[in-house]
Automatic annotation (TrEMBL):
Protein name: GtrA family protein
Organism domain of life: Bacteria
Similarity field: Belongs to the GtrA family.
Keywords: Membrane, Transmembrane, Transmembrane helix
Record membrane topology: Multi-pass membrane protein
Length: 177
């Protein structure tokens, strides 16, 4: 396969990954905003506390979607490590998301129902960029390439394989003391 074909295959794989991430994220958004609004209208919880609770419910929902659909072809060894990193990066994303809402609510006094939803969704949007990068880079790692062939895309039930250029590594010389 020529360089252009390899690039095209990788871009197609990235587009599919972004689309799947977006579908799970959109469903998580509905869970997050739905639970937030339910808590805002039926409890006496403060805006940001209710939002944090909704965020963590959505995080649990999203983990299942990411692990078993978006990143189902990724490395499945070390689930404890994976879940720990997922929760760590999700907590950072929650801080970003709810930091925007906190700033709008308590910094600027924008705490009406519509304003709370707008800043909640804005915070989710900003946090989503961080989450996409961190999940694909650190949490759901791609399987290593073997024998000069790497799995880069899933296409209609079977993984598509393309040649991966191997760079020869010279053995290190022993350190002389």
């Amino acid at each position: 396969m020529n360089e252009r074909g390899v690039l095209r295959t990788r871009l197609d794989a990235l587009a599919r990954e972004i689309a799947k991430f977006g579908v799970v994220g959109a469903m998580g958004l509905l869970v997050n905003v739905g639970v937030s609004n339910l808590l805002w209208h039926t409890t006496d919880l403060q805006v940001v506390r209710a939002s944090l609770l909704a965020t963590f419910i959505a995080i649990l929902f999203n983990y299942v979607g990411f692990r078993y659909w978006t990143y189902r072809d990724r490395d499945k060894t070390g689930r404890t490590r994976e879940l720990t990193l997922f929760l760590l990066f999700s907590a950072v994303g929650a801080a970003i998301e709810n930091g925007v809402l906190y700033t709008a609510t308590y910094g600027f006094g924008w705490n009406g129902p519509v304003q709370s939803n707008v800043f909640k969704i804005l915070g989710i949007g900003i946090a989503t960029l961080f989450r996409f990068w961190s999940y694909r880079s650190w949490v759901f790692k791609a399987l290593p390439a073997e024998d000069g062939v790497g799995v880069v895309a899933q296409g209609r039930g079977a993984a598509e394989q393309v040649p991966v250029e191997r760079v020869p590594v010279e053995p290190a010389e022993p350190v002389r003391r």
